[in-house]
Write a structure and sequence with these properties.
By secondary structure, this protein is an alpha+beta fold. It contains two helices and three strands.
Amino acid sequence: MFLFDPATRSRIKLWGRLKAVEGDLEMIGKLFDEGYKARPERVLLFRIEAWDVNCSQHITERFTREEIQAAMPGIQQKIIALETENAQLRAALNDALGKKFD
């Protein structure tokens, strides 16, 4: 598995073993917040056996940290507009069908 931050051109390689756990409600309860709306079905456990900081030679910097920070206000405004539209559409759907959709 690779974890990387393109803004700083840093990358870490992880080696390990993955185990999928299904139906373990106790484990799911420990890993997810009580108020979490989704219903997790499985947990993926990754046991790290080795790691290494990887060469950044081939990581292309697409955007600088400053460019990303400058774009964030517009992105946040778009998210607010979409969430507002989503709430309005859910309300209209609830009214039309007489059901509650979260």
